[in-house]
Structure formats: structure tokens, C-alpha cells
Amino acid sequence: MAPLYCTIVLLCCAFIKGEYVSFDKLYEDGMIAYTKNDWKKSIDYIEQSLKAYKEYNHGISYCSIQCRNISKKSDVEEIGYLTILARKGLCVKNCLVERFGDFKGLRVSKEIVNDFKNLMPYQYLQFAYYQDDSISESVSSAYTYSLRFPDDELMGENMKYFRQSEDVTDDMFINRETMPHLELYGQAVEAYLKEDYTSSASLFEEALSEYIKAVDVCYGVCESSDAADDEHWTVDFYRQNAYHYVDVLECSLKCIRDLSSEVSNHYYPNYLPVMLHYLQYCHYQLDNPAKSAEYMMSYLLFHPDDSEMKENLNFLAEDFDISNVKALVQMEDYYRKSNLEAGMLEYSWNYFGMKDKDRSLISYFRYEKSEKISVTKDDDIHDGNTPNKISDTKNDHVDDSNIPDEEEHKVDGYESMKEKTDDIMSKQAAELEHRIHAQKSDDVDISRLVGASRIGYRVVDSKHIVKIAEKGEIDPQSEGPLLYEGSYLLANSSMLKGDNRFAVDGISDKFQCQELMDLAVALGKAGDGYLGKESPHTDHERFEGVTVLDAALAVKSGNLPLSVAKLYYDISEKVRAQTQAYFKLPNLYFDYTHLVCRTAKADAPAERHDLSHPVHADNCLLNDNAECVKEPPAYIWRDYSAIVYLNGDFDGGEFIFADLTARRVLVDLKPKCGRMVSFSAGKDAFHGVKPVLRGRRCAIALWFTLSEKRREIRRDKAKEIIDELLVSSKDEL
């Protein structure tokens, strides 16, 4: 069975033997079972956590809705607004106690809740099921996630594998997270295209009702969810409540947006108005003028300047009395609430200076007129002064993706994609030849290496190589701030022969380095991160690794001091913060954190021409033309990388930067305790490691992303474990 790409996901509520268990606890148990390769147990826990998460949402939404109208509007003047809030709070509390018993387990971190909203458990499930030889369940889990996130590269590779596998049948591609209103919507459109207006109208009305229900349930979750969030914590009571209200507003508007997403997170601002447009035309065809007019007026709430819909109304008014017809009250409430909340949220963002918010959430509620076509019935011809048609949306929703276009085969001026690809490849080969020729005259000739080995696996030192072992007499010019006392800039980008590079000494001291070296000895797993392959890059070295989560779980099981796991976490955080500050980045998230050691084998030859780690870039694949292609299975979301070294008492093992040919070494950096180097993850920073000739070389390797969606979930889980243990074991530190 071919291997699948795997992402370990951490998430979390159920009743076990009559006792409520939070979904994050269930997921934690599933994660521990996963690390032990106990696939059946991990599957059982994660499936329980998914069910429990739905119980969690249903329960808090039910209680919020039940307590929504506990007091009358007139009570505000009599007893005060805060008293009403207290009454509602008590009502919700009593309701939750009735449903869940001890409901303290309902308090879950905001990050965990967001992970469930983003269907992250299915990434974990698809791999666990695959390892358990449950192919059907693995396919459905992968399919469920890929529908929401079709651009996810790793899951895309898994789906490609499944679609090509003879063991997989079409009936295995099941979406486990279907939304009733979207299924009904699809059935309604299908009936509409068959001109079955009776069925279509019924299905659209049912879809509309289910959508409004879903939005209301989601509102309830937003109003009563107790997801922990310390982002805006302040001792100021009024600002604290204001920030909380902003969070509720954001959550409520996301309900409307997210529930109008069919699949793949492509949102449709006109989702509800489009249903109204369908309905006005269906009821016109069914000779229900009053209903048709009702839906027309409801549509005009969202698009008041739509001339075609106004003409439709005028057309109806010629033959029918619709003077008493009004827009649906439910639609008026929906429109008023969504636009009012969007306006309030925009004002709050501006007033509190929240510049890092996703403004597209606001623009989503700026309804614009959608294009439509017109359909004319033969018996609806009137005189030239009145419209002779009712507008239809029929062609708006015909899937024309399979309709051939006479120009479709042409690609950017080429007759075909093959022609374009061949041309690009020939240009790349010519460019490489030109670079090699241009550099022969003043540097080492590398032509003997071309074709002699895989690119990146053999290198030579440039005539102009820069070797850095200790700080020079002249302080380098810093291009960004240094955050930590005792640290100093070793080399800037100019000294490291490229953009977006720097090296710093003093990030950690000798005691800290030794503690982390001991951690690697205690927990290091051979081939960690490389499917257990002990020597993934060269036969002459043994590779071992430890993740932050490995360390945290070891503390929890009593096999590691808490202080050591916290040190691992804190040092890596220092590196992230320093990288973000130096490069002046607005945000930077961990993608992967790995404490790794490379040890020269006793029988390794004294003269070696291989590399401990071949020359490469961290977000693209290096091909034989020295081009780095940014596509899967490369980690294309990675933006920056860093390494902090723990020792220097070994021979060889220098970190290197290579030139554009990936064969000539421009910079040679000697590792030592507390030395950090940071650089771009892209093709502008080809790097590698020279062979470790004697001894053991240890470092923490870190990869970062600018995308919060891609942040390292295992690291979040490690922090949760460490924080929990710190509370109960303060004396240990």
C-alpha cells in the first residue's frame, strides 16, 4: 500500500458511563493512542470527539435560544440591563447543568474550537483509518476535508492516490459534514433546470427554512460559547466587555458567510438572495402572483436598485393587485440584523484600532447586483410600454466547466500546455548553461559535477567562499532589531551572500544547550520525520529527532522533567520571535519544530564527498535544471526557516549556503552552542550541511509560515500540556 501524507491533528465531548467528557480531552486521548500506533483506539477517541463536538454546539445553542427572551424589553427601564444579562446568564447556566451536569468541561481553548470548525480532525482520521486498513473510512474522511479545502496540497496528494487506486470505488467518496440546506439547494436547482417548478419551489423553500435555522443555531453558539481567549484580556471591565462583544459580532457574521459556502470555502454573498430570485420565478410560473411578489420584494431588500426585479414587480402589478404584499418578515429581520452587525463591527474595528482583521468579512455584506438573463413566455407579451418578461436566474447556475471552448487549448500564447512546458524547460536548460559558463571564468568550474550526481548531493567550495566561525572585529550592520540581552549579530545578509539571512550568537547558554542535548539522548527516535529511516540522507550518519509534543507527552508520562520540555518550547519560541522581529514581519507561525542530531558512524570513511544534508530549499523541489519548483509534495506554505545549534564539539557538519547552481558553496558557517541562523525558505536560499566526520551534531530546526491556518497544531497541544503541568507543578521550576 502506497504511503499517505499525514498530519497529526489535536482537537476535543461525550458521555462516557454517564459522565460528560469534553471533546478536547477525547481528542487528547486519541492523540496519545496515535503516538503509540494504536490506530483502533485513536480512531475510537477521535470519532467520539467529533460526535461530542456536535453535542457541544447543539447544547450551548439550545440553551442560548431557550434563554434569549427571558426578559421583556420593558424590563430594561424597571430592573436595568445588567440585571437582565444576569438573568439570562443564570438561565443559560441552569440549562447547561441540566443537559451536561458539571459543565466546566465546556470551556475549551479558542484554537481547539477553530480547529474543529476547520475540519482538522478529518486530517488525523484519514491517516489513522488508512493505517488500520479501513480504506472506505479513510477515503470519506479525506474527501470530507478536501471538499472544504481543495487547495490543501497534502490532502490533494492523498485524494489523487485514492482516485487512482483499484481498491477505491465511487461510493466511498462520502461527505461526512453535509449541510441540509445546501443539499436541498442542489436538489432544487436540479428540479428547476428540468422546469419542474412545483418541486423546485418546495425544495427552495425548505432550503431557505433550513438555512435560517442553521444560522440561528450558529448564532446561539456564538452567544454562549465559552471558548477561552486571552487575546484581549484587560482589567478594564468596559473594554473587556466591548472586546467580547466584537468577538461575538465576528462569530455571528461568520455564521452567515460560512453557511453560504457550498464547498471549498468559496463564499457567495448572494446565496440567500439567489434563492429568493429562483422562488419569485418558480411561483410566477405556478401562477402564484402574491407569492412571487413576496419573494421579489424580499429580494429587493438586498438589491434595492435592481431594475430587472423592479420591472418584474411592475409587470405583475399590471394584472394583479399586489398593493398589500410585503417582503417576508423573516427576510427583513435577517437583512436588518446582518447589515447592522456588519456596520457595528466595522465601527468597532476602527474605534479600537484593530488593523489586523479580515476586512473581507465586512465586504461580504456589501450586496451587489448579480447578473441574470431574461426568459419570456409566449403568452406574456404586452404592449411596448410594459415589460414582457419575468427575469430568471436559470443560466447563472449551469455548470459549464465541461463545455469545450474553441480557445481552451491555447495557453498564454502557446498552442498547448505541452508546447508551453517544452519551451519553459528549454529556456531553463539554456539559463543553467549560461550561469555555469558565466561563472567559469572567475570561480571554480562545476561542469564536472553536472550529470555526475543528483543535483544538490555534491558540492565544491567557491573561490570566494566566506567561512564564519567566530565574530569578527568589526560589528556587522544590523538590518533588524535584536530582542534578547546577551545575544549579538554574527552576520548580516551581505556577509551571508544573499537576501533575507542573518546569524546571531547567544540565543542559549551552555547549560541550556547541554539540557537539550540530554533530551535528545533520552527521547531521540531514529529516523524521526523520515518514516523511521535511520540514515535518510547519507549511509555514513545516524539521524535522530524529537518533537516538542514528544517532550511534553514524556513529561506527562513521568519520563522527563517539566523544566526540560519547557526549555525546548521556550528556546524555539525565542528563535521564532527573533526571526519575526529581524525580518519585520507582521506575523509568523510555527510550521514544524524538530530537535535533531546527526552522528557519524564508526565505520564512516575519513574522506567523504557526500553531504550530511543535500543542498535544497525548504518550500520547493530542486530539479536537475537547478530550478526549484514550488508544488506538492514540497511544503509550499513554508516562508522562513531557522536553526539554533546546541554544540560544536564535532568535526565537519558546517551549515552551508550555495549559489544558484546548487553546486557551489558560497558560505560555510561553523555551528556552536547558542548560534542561530535564519533565512528565507524559498529558492533564494539553497542550503545544506557538510558531512559530519566525527562526533554528534545537534540542533533545533524550525520552519515557519505566514499562514495561521498552517500553524503547527502539535506545538499548540504541547503548550496545553506544559501549561497544565505548570499549574500543578510550580515548584519544579
Oligomeric state of this protein: single chain
Q: How many strands appear in the DSSP assignment?
A: 21
Strand content: 5-15%
Kindly report the average pLDDT value.
78
> So, CATH architecture of the largest domain?
Sandwich
Instruction: Provide the number of structural domains.
Output: 3
Residue stretches low in confidence (pLDDT < 50, at least 5 long) are: 1-18, 227-235, 367-391, 393-414, 416-441
Order of neighbouring strands in the sheet with most strands: 6-7-18-14-21-10-9-8
**Terminal CA distance:** 47 Å
Classify the secondary structure makeup into a structural class: alpha+beta
How would you sum up the major sheet?
8 strands, antiparallel
Number of helices: 21
Estimated helix fraction:
40-55%
Short description:
The chain is of the alpha+beta class and 733 residues long. Helices cover 45% and strands 14% of the residues. The chain folds into three domains: 14-177, no CATH class; 225-377 and 388-396, no CATH class; 492-732, Jelly Rolls (Sandwich).
List the helices and strands and how they pair.
Blueprint: E1 14-16, E2 19-21, H1 23-35, H2 39-66, H3 75-79, H4 81-100, H5 110-117, H6 121-131, H7 135-148, H8 153-164, H9 180-193, H10 197-224, H11 237-259, H12 271-285, H13 289-302, H14 307-319, H15 329-351, H16 360-363, E3 373-375, E4 390-392, H17 417-440, E5 460-468, E6 488-491, E7 501-505, H18 510-523, E8 525-526, E9 541-547, H19 548-556, H20 562-582, E10 589-600, E11 613-616, E12 621-622, E13 628-629, E14 638-645, E15 651-652, E16 655-658, E17 664-669, E18 676-680, E19 687-689, E20 692-694, E21 696-705, H21 713-728
Parallel strand pairs: 5-17
Antiparallel strand pairs: 1-2, 3-4, 6-7, 7-18, 8-9, 9-10, 10-21, 11-19, 12-13, 14-18, 14-21, 15-20, 16-17, 16-19
Helix pairs in contact: 1-2, 2-4, 2-6, 2-10, 6-7, 7-8, 9-10, 10-11, 10-12, 11-15, 12-13, 13-14, 18-20, 19-20, 19-21, 20-21
